[in-house]
User: What shape does this take?
Amino acid sequence: MNTVSIMFVGVGGQGTLLASRIVGNVLLNKGFDAKVSEVHGMSQRGGSVTTYVKYGDKVYSPIVDKGEADYIVAFELMEAARWVEYLKKGGKMLINTQQLSPMPVITGAAEYNSDVIDKIKALGIDVISLNALELAEQAGNDKSVNVVMMGVLSNELGFDKSLWTDALRECSPKAALESNEKAFELGVNV
Amino acid sequence: MGKKTLMLGNHAIARGCYEAGVTVVSSYPGTPSTEITFAMTQYKGDIHAEWAVNEKVGCEVVVGASIAGARAFTGMKHVGLNVASDPLYTASYAGVNGGLVLAIADDPGMHSSQNEQDSRRHAIASKCLMLEPADSRECLEFTKKAFDLSEEFDVPVLIRLSTRISHSQGIVEEGERIKRDLPDYKKDASKYVMMPVFARGRRVFVDERDRKLVAYAEKSPFNVIEDNNSDIGVICAGTTYQFSREALGDKASYLKLGVVNPLPVELIKEFAKKVKKLYVAEEMDPIIEQHCKAIGLEVIGKDLFPTIGEYSQGIIREKVLGEVKEHSVFPEAIPVRPPVMCAGCSHRGLFTVLGKLGVMVNGDIGCYTLGATPPLSAMDTTICMGAGVSSLHGFNKGRQGDYENRAVGVVGDSTFIHSGITGLINIAYSKSNSTIIIADNTITGMTGGQNTPANGLDIYGDSAPSVDIETMCKACGIKRVTVVDPSDMAETERVLRQELDANEPSVVISRKPCALLKGFVKNKPVAVDPNKCTGCRVCLKVGCPALSYKDKKVSVNKNLCVGCGVCGQLCKPAAFADTVSAIDNGGND
Ligand SMILES: Cc1ncc(C[n+]2csc(CCOP(=O)(O)OP(=O)(O)O)c2C)c(N)n1
Assistant: This one.
């Protein structure tokens, strides 16, 4: 089997780390060779962050390079645009349309790009877009945007649902488990 | 068969230490190495783990533990080894009693570091054995073996990591912890007292040991030849093995080096003979390449591959095969998203005031270094930990006094303990008229929130004696020591003006807990009254990620705002009316 490459892109503090750990856990229990590459240090400080998940019979490099990602899961709209180059021809993007302004936009030195989804689609890219923040709030926890996106991704990867719910239980902090389970379900039903 | 888990490279190093019977661990945090030592806390009872005051202290602690007969470990980032190099270089002469291993995490590409430094240089200079694992499984395996090698060859062993190895999870199989009896401690001045008369003897030993280590490198199971197509041969190690293997697959043969110091000679020659075209793929310095050239081989290295930054499979593919993966490009420029101080960050008020004062800010490393970036732009220098204190004195002397009343040094609380105290003593002792600000957020923020010797908690979160920073400053010889709350910007400004004007050295402690701390009490998010907001954007100068500007009005992201109230203090029309009451409430929700 060829290696499948997934990228999570977002803003530090959005929980890309937890998301990649949930998927990593699913892949381990499914019996794949897998690598999950995280970014620490600056990641809590609101910068642009990426984590990589790769699986297959044998995974070598832990990172994903330009033109290699089968899926890009974007937790924030502008970050989807920033990392488009990493998508493989024929790859798919799952995008949370939530907007978080980076500092140059906040200070007025730059503008937030307009019509991002349309511009990505115009490149011939297959896109699923949703407002994951709204769904997370519905689930009772605005921090569960990451888990909503995992629900959406689970439809694409198509493993047994029980693997995902087990992984969710293993990786979620206890206090957030209930809202995470709801958030995941809302993502699955998108 | 042991349990298979997906494990971070750093956690696998910790696991390897545990399985090897390590009992003493002492380290100072530093990205990307920090998780190794924190992970040791799960082995409480078997391993004594601690946050050391700095890397030199951590290294000296484990040198002592090794002499006592224990297996001991310290982990640090690449620049940490500069600080720890003094004990290491001589511990190399003394050798070990119990196995002694140091993990050094390099950061090619500078994801979170101030320079891009190749730790192999330290291995060469200190004449220590250095191993380089290429994934989590090897992190565990190499670490475990490193303790045996350390004892067999009487040498400290370094394990070289890099960001992608430290911070990638891969599948590992856990093993059992070995049973190891503590060997006797025997007094042996000729081995452990490194004064000239004894050190000369050990110098000879080190030379002999070097030869034995080369012989080990020739036959080490960690140096592996992978024969595939003989048109292309690649010598690689760690990350560059993974990148090359992924990019070139069976189109190339590989010599994967797990022992990166010393380097084998015959093994490399043997590999060179097998292949038509020989490449050396190594991030940062051309160390393997120069070694190959020195033993008379023709290799392609830095002439082809980048001399700067991190490699990837894409780089190897393009340079060796001339292939680039097809990809789309977004049709317009995208604003950059640099890291910023968090909403509620205790440093924001301080740096807003420093920006207003327009003083020269001799900075240091920590979250507060983000005060250098727009819109705060209130830092002039950052060199290394501790320089925020010592270099201000040098700057003031260099300026012959004309900046003494308009320059400050800024240093974090953890950094102050790490290496700021010595600089402060130097300021007092040298009769410097320097003004130092200790940005005390009661935690080591930048590396993810480790307890410090000044916050009353140890690595396990248990209570511990703590340094009283005010008393410490006074004991260093500084008479003027003031504490301010940086969320009160008017008071912070008043105190800073007063201390800058004073004609003797002073310390201002800017104290407020980090907003990411578990017990941090959030205030109600502030709200902007759109009828009062004139759209002047003065509040945006604090660089808070919770604020945004749309349709000529400022608005607040309620998911991010913690109600610290700094923005509102700048608002002339008082559009942030809620802020004031939030502060007056003393932090109630
Ligand atoms: C010699 C060395 N060791 C470790 C580091 C990594 N590091 C950078 S800043 C820092 C400490 C930050 O803590 P503090 O001074 O309290 O500032 P804060 O981030 O909390 O604002 C550390 C550990 C380094 N850059 N250099």
Q: What stands out?
A: Residues B 28-30, 55, 77, 79-80, 83, 114, 365-368, 385, 412-415, 439, 441, 443-447 surround thiamine diphosphate (CB under 6 Å).
